[in-house]
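step 3/5: co-fold with iron/sulfur cluster
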Amino acid sequence: MKLSEIFASGKFAVTSEIGPPKGVNIEALLEQAELLRGKVDAINVTDQQSSVMRLGSLAICHLLKERGLEPVFQITCRDRNRIALQSDLLSAYVLGIRNVLCLTGDYVSLGDHPGAKPVFDLDSVSLLHAASELQQGRDLAKQALKGNPDFCLGAVVTPGANPLGPQIMKMEKKVKAGAQFFQTQAVYDPRKFEDFMNQIKHLNVPVMVGIVLLKSAGMARFMNANVAGVHVPEPLIEEMADAPDRVEKSIEIAARLIKEMKDMCQGVHIMAIGWEEKVPAVLEAAGL
Amino acid sequence: MSVDAILERAFQNRIFSQAFFLVERKMKEWLFDCQSCGNCVLSHTGFICPMRCPKSQRNGPCGGAMDGHCEVDISKRCVWDEIWESTNRLHRIDLLTNNYEGPPDWRLYGTSAWENMVAGRLESPSIFETLFRKDEPLLREVPRVVFQILRNCYNLITGPSWRRYEGRPPL
Ligand code: SF4
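step 4/5: write C-alpha cells
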C-alpha cells in the first residue's frame, strides 16, 4: 500500500527504518522487520547509509514485500548515474515496490571506500523529477516507456538546518518535482518544529517527523557536535545522563516527543539505529 | 537583431568561437573558479558556481551542510551557503526557487556555455533574461551585479571556499 493512501485517509502514518548488513546473513535483519509487523505502515530500507558498502536496498525491499511487509525503497544519487537510477526505479516497480524515498546520499569519503568515484550525476531534485517523468511514461531522454510505473515519491528535509532558508527553498523544489511526502531529520525540539511547520504550511504536503532514539547522553552530545541540523536541548541530555535505566528513559523521551508533535504533522518516522527491537515499545508508550 | 542572434552568427566562425571560449574560460576560472561544465547556471545562482560543490548540487544544499560548512570537509564553506548569501544580496532568491536546474549534459563538458546557450543546447533560459532585475533601472543594476561578482571573487580567494579539484576528483 502506498503511503499516500494512508495520508489521504487522514490516519497518522508511522514508519521505521532498517539497515541491510555488510554481508549476506539477513536473518537478524528480517527478524527486526518482523517485530514491526502490524505496528508500522511501512519500513524504510536504507541505501548503503553513511557510504558504507552493504547489501542493497532493492533486494531487501523485495524480500519484505514477499513477506507481506510494506517497504520504502531509499535510493541515493551517490553511486549511480541517471541511466542506472531510472533503471532501478523501473526494477523496483516490477518487484512491487511502491514507496520510494529519493535522497542525494552522503559523500563517498565519509564511508569505508573513501577512494571510490563519487557519481552525483543527478541530485535529489532531479531524481524526483526523473521519477515523475517515468510516471508520465517517458524517461529523462524523453523516450517513451512501455508501461509506466506509479510510485508514492518521498523526500527528506532538515527542519533544524541553519540557515533554514535554503532548506525550505529546496523543499519547495522537491514538491514541484513530485515529492508527495517528507520524512525529516531527527527533531528534539517541538517548539522549533512547530515554527518550521508554520513556514511550510503553503506547500500542503504531508510531513513525517523524524525521531532518533537517544541511546545515551554521550550520543546526544556527539550528534549536537557532528550531525547537521540536529540539536538535542541540554535538559534532555541531563535527563538522559541522570536516568538509572537508559533504555526506559530513551523510550519515555521518544514517546513524549511523538505525543507533543503528533498534532503538528502527518506522521512519524522512527530511526532506532541499532535499537530496532525497542520501536514497538516506543509506539505503545506514544499511544500509536 | 538580438544579442543572441548576433552571437549565434558569429559563433559559426571557428576562429571567433575558439577565441571567445579562450576568454570565457579564463575569465570564468578567475572570477568563479568555473569548472567548465558547459551547462552554465551562474546567472541563476548568484554568480557562484554550484559545480564546485563536491556533490555537484545544482538545486540546493544537501542535508549535510552544517552552519554553512560542508559535510565533506568541515573547514570548507558550503558552496550553497555562498550561493544563498550572494542571491540574498542581489535580492534574487526567486531565481533559485523558480528555476529547476536539470542535470548537466556531459557531452557539453569543456565547451563554451555561451555558445551552447545561443545555439539552444541548454534547457535553462537565456542569461540575458535573468541577469538584471526588470523593475530596477539598469544604471543601478549593472554596478550592483558587478560589485557582487567582485565581492564573491574576493571571498573565493581569501575565504575557506572549495576550490578546483580540492577534495574531490575533477569533473
Ligand atoms: S558544498 Fe558540501 S555541504 Fe554544501 S551542498 Fe555541497 S556537499 Fe553539501
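step 5/5: annotate
Chain A touches chain B through 36 residues (CB under 8 Å).
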